[in-house]
Every structure is written in C-alpha cells, then in structure tokens.
Amino acid sequence: MANSAISNTAAFQIFAFLILVCTEHSIAGEIRYSIPEEMEEGAFVGNVAQDLGLEIQQLYDRNFMLTSDDGVDYINIELQRGILSIAKKIDREQICGQETACTISFKIILENPLAVYRGEVEILDVNDNTPTFSEGTIALQIAESMAPGVGFPLESAQDQDVGINAVAAYTISSSDYFRLKTQTSDDGVIAVELLLEKSLDREQKSSLRLVLTAIDGGIPQRSGTTQILITVMDNNDNPPVFDHKIYRSSLRENAPLGSLVVTVKANDLDDGPNADLTYSFSKLTSPTLREMFSCDPYSGEIRTNRMLDFEKSTSYSLHLQAVDHGSPAITGHSQILVKIIDVNDNAPEIKVTSTTCKIMETVLPGTLITLVNVIDRDSGENGQINCEVSRSIPFKLQTSSSNHYELITSEELDRESVPEYEVVLVAWDFGSPSLSTNKTIQIVITDVNDNAPLFSEPSYNMYLTENNAPGTSIFAITATDLDMDQNSYVSYSLLWNNIQDTRISSFLSINALNGTIYALRSFDYEKLKTFQIHVQARDAGVPPLSSSAAVNVIILDQNDNAPVIVSPSAQSGSASAESLPQSADQGYFVTKIIATDADSGQNARLFYQVHHSTDPTLFNIEQNSGEIRTARRIFESDTSMQTLVILVTDNGQPRLSSTVTIHISFQENVTERITERNNLVSNSEYDSNLHLYLIVVFGCTSLLFLVTIILLIGIKCKQEGTVTQDHNSSSCCYRLGGSNDVLDRRYGTEETLRYPGTGRIVRVGETPHYSVCLSPESAKSDFLFLKPCGRPTSQP
Q1: Residue 364: how many other CB atoms lie within 10 Å
Q2: In the chain, which end has fewer C-beta atoms inside a 10 angstrom radius, N or C?
Q3: d(CA 222, CA 157)
C-alpha cells in the first residue's frame, strides 16, 4: 500500500512538473524562508497559506500540491494549517556542501485556476562542524641547509561550515624556528604557510613536532588540530671527524705480514649516506707506503702489507682520510705515526778501503795498510759494535774514530818467512743474540832484494875422469835466492883464477843461467891432478847481491898408460939374457922384473906372470914383486937355453900390459959372473935411484891415504855413534881386509862423496860420483892400494 502511495505521488509530481513547464508564465508569486540547519523534524518553517494570501479551504479546493526537485524530502506542508515544516533534519553541509548560499527550492501548484508559486527555503549554516585536517599528521622534510625565510605551504583545515562558521584562523605551537603565515584568497580561502625563521641544524635537532590549530569563526568557536612532524633532512655539512687527530703505533720490524698497526675510527654528525664513511690513504701518503700498508675501507684497520725494515726507515707517517657518501662528499683527515722498533737482525758490516793490499817487506811497524769502517744498521745496543783482528799476525787495529779503524803493521815483516797474510777482521754487536761478521783482507808482502843467493855448501868437490871429451858438462852447481821474481833470478860466473899460470876460462866455462860447468879441454891426470875454482852466484835485484862457493876439481885417473918394463933392460933388441949355474937349486933367484906405470892407484898396480916358458915347470915368478926364481932344481936333461916371456899387467879397467922376453942359459961355472951381475944390479945408480923414487912415491901416497882415511873414519864414527847395528853395515867404522872391505860407501841420492884429502860434496842431480874400495892386495904390501868399486858415472 505504501508502495502504491509512493507511485501515485511520483506520478502526480510528474504531472505537476509538466503543467508547470507549460504554464511557467503563470507563476503568480514567490515566497522565501530562512531556517537554520539542523532543525528538528516538524519544526515550523513558514505559513504558506498566509504568505500566499490563501485560505485554508482554498488549499483543499484547488488541489494544493507541493513539489521540489531537491528538497521534497526535507520540507512538507500541513494542508490543515497551510504551514511549511521540516520533514526531516536538514544538514546543510550534506545538501550544499561548501556552497555559500544553500537553498531548498519548491513550488506550490494550485488548480482551478492553475497557479504556480515558487518558494525557497534558505538553509542557514550553523557552526556544527569542527575544522578538520585530512591527515592527523602533516609530515614535512626540510633540509637543514634551507635558508631562513623559506615558506612551506601547509594543508588547510577543512570545515564543512561556511561563512563565519568556516575556518577563520590558524595558530601553531611555539617554535624558535617557525611561524605561520596566512593569506586569504579572493574566494575567502585561507592559505597557511609554515615560514622558516631560523636555520635548522639536524645535528642539534633532527626533528620538530608542532601543533597546527585551525579555528572557525562560529559561536561558539570550534577548532581542529593536526601534528606537524618536521624531519630535518640532513645536509652533508659535517666532515667526518677521527677519534684522534694523530694515531700513534709501534711495531717490531720483524712483525709478520698482515700485522695490525692500528684501527682508526671516524664519526660523522650527519645522517644517512652523509654519515656512511669509507677509509683510505690520502694523496699525502706516498705510493711506496700504500704498498707497505693496507687500509680496510670499512673497518678502518691498518695492517702491514710488506715486511718492515728498521734500517730503511725508523718510522712511517701515514695520512688517512675518511670520506662520507654525501653529495658532495666531505673528507676528514687524520695522521698515523708508526714507530718501528729495532730488532737485532743486521750483522755488522765491515768496509775496507781495499781487500787486497801489497806492502813491501821493509816497511816499518806502524805503517798504515788500509782503513776499516764497521757499521751496524741496527740501533741502540743492537748497533753497538766491537772489532778485532785475528791474532798471531804482525798487524793490529788502531781506532781512529767511532767505528773507524786503521789496520797497521805491528812488527817487522819478512816475505821469505811469510809471503802472504790473510787478515781476518771480526766484528760483533751487543745485541741479544749477538750477531757477528768477518772479512778477510789479503795482504801480499812484496819482495825486496834483501837475500843474496846461497849455495847449499861453502865448497864442493867435483870429480872428473881424465881424458874427458871437451865441451861436456862435468858438474852442476845451484844457488837459491829466497827473494822472488827479478830479485831471485840467479846468474852464475867463474871468478878470476889461474891454473898452472893459465886463465881458468881456458879450462872451464859455466852456464850463466843454470850453473852447469863445462870442460873446455881434456884433462890429463898425469899432468894435473886437482885444482880449485870459485863460482859466483849473482841475483838480478837492485842493487844486486852475490855470494860464491869453492869447487875443488879432482881429476880421476884413467888406465891410459901401459906398464913400462924398466929392468931388466932389453939387450940385443927385444930380449934380455940371463945365465944360471947348472947347480942352481929350487928357489934360486934368477932375476927381478921391474916395471913402472904412469897411472896411479889400481891402474898403477902391476902383476907379473909367466906368459910363455920353454919349460913351464922350471921357473916361476912372484906375482907382486916380479922376482923370478927356479921352481925346482936344474937337471942335466933340461935344455941349456930357456926362454921366458914375462907378462906385466896393471890393475886398471881395461887392463893394459907389456911383455919382456928373457933368455936364460945354464953354465957350469958361473958363480963369479953371477956375483958380478948381482953387484952390477945392486950397485947400479939407475936401479938405486929408481928404487928410491918408488919408495918415496908409494910411501907418501900410502901415508896420505892412510891419514885421510883414519880422520874420515873417526869423524864419521863420532857422527854415527848412535846408529843401530842394522846401519853398521853402511857405517864408516868397518873392518879392513877381505874382499868386502870398503873404503867409501856407494853414494845414494843424498849421501856425501868422499875423496882423500879433499873434504866432501853433496851430490847434486846426476853429478858423477865414484866409490873407492881397498884392494885385497893392500894386505900383502906396505902400500895402500885403491880401486874403483864399480864403474864411475858421469853426466854428459
């Protein structure tokens, strides 16, 4: 039923509207009412009937109808009284919003006759709305770098009321930095602006909270508030600041790689990226130091990147920077002083002017050899050093200044004793543990000609066999010079001397370079048996020095003369004649063969033998004396004429011999003739002189040899008194007699060679030597006979 009523009403309104449109010109009048909003339902608006001059009955009769486009729901007419009343509570802000004038238009339509009346109900605003802000908090971000005077528009408060009930003013809580600035536009809207009066400093105050109040003009006044949260936006206006302007650290120089030096820390009062810091070395830090140390860009740890060396640098200065991430970026600076603690890792170093020195052996003690400088790159006790020179040498160190020394001679030098020195310098420090080093200086002593050439013996005996070949070397003599180089070059020469009134240069010559002596002629023992020369050795120094030695030249006999038969003298050409009585018994002396030999020694010792005999059984001859005697009685049957060929042989090598033929005849009465012959032989001046010569010669020779041998044996025995029995076989104390009696030993490489009456000589090289032995025949004679023991050797 309700729905039906609504439908009817709608249809009526449509019909009325059409009539109204068609009869718009028939509108008779207009009424206007003003009412405040928010009136209760049924509240009186106006008396329409009275205001239109209509009777209440007319309203019914003329089919009174109220129409409205937008207000039909808010007003209605009571036909009984013709009164316009509030149909429901009116909210002006809901109907008109922020419109200044808010009216509800309506029309009253009457029929018979048709009349249309227009009416308006003005809704007057009532201050029933509080100013409100769209957000409970107004957030502003203001850079701290913003200059005073800058305004920041704020959102205006909304008040659904209008006119005087709308927002009339704004206020803000007290602030040192801000004030409000309002400006009313032509349309009456108040623009609110937050004006910066003082520069912000985020580092002092990073945010501000203000209360903005909007006040309307109604009665009573209503107000609304909102929070203004001002965030001070950081401006990169603060540089990073390190905890310390200068960081100090110390490290031992043997600290391992990666050792922490120091950790730096910087703070930035800014915020956000402006406070994010990165650490690095500044440009003031050299590239070398950047390689030695590393910097962690985030933690600020400074670590070693290479091994440290106190000796290269005792400290390091690192310049560090902290850069924030602001725009533009700001840099803070600091300095790191790294002190390196010394470790005894360096041995002392010895520096000398020269490691090889040459000095003359004649320099005086105290002569400067070289300068020595000892350094230690460490410091403190590690760098305190001491230096010494090796002992037992003629050098010493003399301090000239701190760690500077002079190496000088402390004694006289002798190159011939020590030609070269290795001087060891030892230096050590006082560190813990102590380190040391040494250096060798080679000192060469240069030669000075202070030594004359020296012969091994003051005199030499040289043995030379006669009949030598001219031009052959016969002896070599050598002198040594303790000097060196030119000072040791020795030349040899023969000092002036005469031999048998003849200059020595006609007999001998000497090689000036090696001292070899040459025979210029052949010597004859029978003419010259011994002579002495003097050899001078001279060096090539400046000035030259020389010395001399005597050389006794002994000519050795050679068997170069055959025996000469002196008696019996040959008669009748080549044979001698002897006669014997027929009555001669065994052992009857027939004759004596006397022979001489111009040689000497064993070469002159003669042996006699029957080389040929008519009757070998009848005669014999004494081997040594040459006496011929009958071997048996002479028989009548023996041939009256006997022939003997006597062979006289010497004892030389090779043996030489001579023969004599004797014819012996037997006679019956030859006594008187024999006596005469014997007297003739014994009284002969020739035989007497010959015997005397032989006795004197052999006696002197034997005596001389005997005395010499005795002296030599005595000296040798005294020298070899402590020699063991095993060596007695080669000792000079030997037994005479027998086939093995030796006068002199055979000479080994280093034995001495003895010869009667001449002293001794040390065998040099392959110098000729001879061994002389006693002949077995010496025991059978009053004379001492010698013979060579083996063949003589000589150097060509």
Answers
A1: 8
A2: N
A3: 12
Rounded to an integer, what distance in angstroms lies between the CA atom of residue 83 and that of residue 47? Answer: 4
> Tens digits of per-residue pLDDT, 235-285?
888 899 999 999 999 999 899 999 999 999 999 988 888 899 999 999 889
Q: Is residue 795 part of a domain?
A: no
Give the residue, 132 or 234, on which the prediction is more confident. 132
Task: State which of 520, 535, 556 marks the end of a domain.
Answer: 556
Q: Which residues pair with 538 in a beta bridge?
A: 491, 546
Domain holding 200, by residue range, is 137-233
Please report the pLDDT score of residue 551 as a whole number: 93
Residues 121-146: pLDDT tens digits?
A: 888 888 888 898 888 888 888 888 88
Position with higher pLDDT, 756 vs 697: 697
CA distance 656 to 644: 20
Determine, yes or no, domain membership for 725: no
Three-state SS for 344?
coil
Peptide bond into 328 cis (omega under 30): yes
Domain count of the fold of the chain: 7
Q: What is the mean predicted confidence (pLDDT) over 374-380?
A: 86
Give Rg (Cα) of the chain: 81
Of 315, 341, 367, which closes a domain? Answer: 341
CB 350 within 8 A of CB 374: yes
- Lowest average pLDDT, out of 79-93, 449-463, 561-575, goes to 561-575
- In this structure, are residues 397 and 372 in contact, taking their beta carbons and an 8 Å threshold? yes
Which residues neighbour 551 within 8 Å (Cβ) at sequence distance 6 or greater?
459, 460, 461, 462, 475, 477, 517, 532, 533, 534, 535
Helix (H, G, I), strand (E, B), or coil: what is residue 694? helix
Q: Are residues 194 and 264 in the same domain?
A: no
What string of H, E and C letters represents the secondary structure of 155-197? CCCECCCCHHHCEEEEEECCCCCEEEEEEECCCCCEEEEEEEC
Please report whether residue 690 resides in a domain.
no
Percent of the chain residues topping a pLDDT of 70: 82
* pTM exceeding the 0.85 threshold for the entire prediction: no
Backbone dihedral region of 716: left (phi > 0), alpha (psi from -120 to 50 degrees) or beta?
Answer: alpha
Whether residue 695 is contained in a domain is answered as no
Considering the domain architecture, whether residues 17 and 99 belong to the same structural domain is answered as yes
| Helices 671-683 and 685-719, packing angle to 10 deg | 60
Same domain, 257 and 319: yes
Whole-angstrom distance, CA of residue 617 vs CA of residue 92: 210
Type of residue at 23: T
CA distance 648 to 644: 13
Phi, psi at 158, each rounded to 5°: -105, 130
Do the Cβ atoms of 598 and 627 come closer than 8 Å?
no
Query: Is 773's pLDDT higher than 70?
Result: no
Check which CATH number belongs to the domain holding 368 and give it: 2.60.40.60
The arithmetic mean of pLDDT across residues 204-226, rounded, is: 90
